Amino acid sequence: MIVVTGAAGFIASCLVSRLNAANFNDVVVVDNFSVEKKLPNIQGKQLREYVDRNEFFDWLDKNHAQVEFIFHLGARTDTTEQDHAVLDLLNLNYSKQMWQACVRYQLPLVYASSAATYGDGMLGYSDTEDALFPLYRPLNPYGESKNDFDNWALAQEEKPYFWAGLKFFNVYGPNEYHKGRMASVIFHAFHQIQQSGSMTLFKSHHPDYTDGGQMRDFVYVKDVVDVCFFLMQHRKDSGIYNLGSGEARTFLDLALNTFNALGRTADIRFKDTPEDIRDKYQYFTQAEMGKLKSIGYSQPFTRLEDGIADYVQHYLLPGRYY
């Protein structure tokens, strides 16, 4: 059996589809299944069992001998969350408990970290220097919770025989319908364009960037789950890895490609960045991807143009799930 936590969420549900496509059908899905808006993400998939996240560790105590691999992708992912107690419970302490269970039963583990750990990027976006990790200063409590767990994991003397933490950059793609404000800019652009024929981006409040010239490393969710699948098969070279496309692109690129995918003439407008996030806003992110490539991952990452076209035309327009 393969366990996937957060399985009704965005990235994890796409991973379940990727596993099913490779004929891994004994998938145990773990989540808070009372959040009904996420449930369409896992409908129609080949699944072995549903386990509530609060009951998972009891379940694992009884079934660990049948478990082959654990993907721990469940988390509180709202970057505007200010309740440290919630983040400590779901992102830090639950992950510690998962790690300790994987040590106890010698189970391989891949878990979700985040590029939010890098903060404003002043120390760069390199995943090769573990000594830098305690120096990062995330810009929000969500990033702090992910950085706290990365540092805790690195400090442990007892580790799973294989483990990998993945610092996700700006992931976009199908199955993010439920995420509301936290959905990708492409998702919001699509709906703005469909409703009004135009879309709005944040103005730049930084002298080095023009309006729409803010840059992010946008990575297609299908690439993300391909990396997860590779690590499940690889099972060596434990550590923390960046997971982006390796290429920063502007929000203007994103907007223009969304219009192109819809066959519409571009009409892009700008508004002030909300004050509650303005001082925490990242103007540039770009994953250094050499570490992942150095362990043998050789698949090319999807170009933004191609990823947006696939997402818009094959998923958003028909309302399909992956």
UniProtKB/TrEMBL annotation:
HAMAP family: Heptose_epimerase. It comes from Hymenobacter saemangeumensis. Its cofactor is NADP(+). The keyword Cytoplasm does not apply. CDD domains: ADP_GME_SDR_e (cd05248). Belongs to the NAD(P)-dependent epimerase/dehydratase family. HldD subfamily. Its EC number is 5.1.3.20. InterPro entries: Epimerase_deHydtase (IPR001509), Heptose_epim (IPR011912), NAD(P)-bd_dom_sf (IPR036291). Contains a large N-terminal NADP-binding domain, and a smaller C-terminal substrate-binding domain. It catalyses: ADP-D-glycero-beta-D-manno-heptose = ADP-L-glycero-beta-D-manno-heptose. This is ADP-L-glycero-D-manno-heptose-6-epimerase.
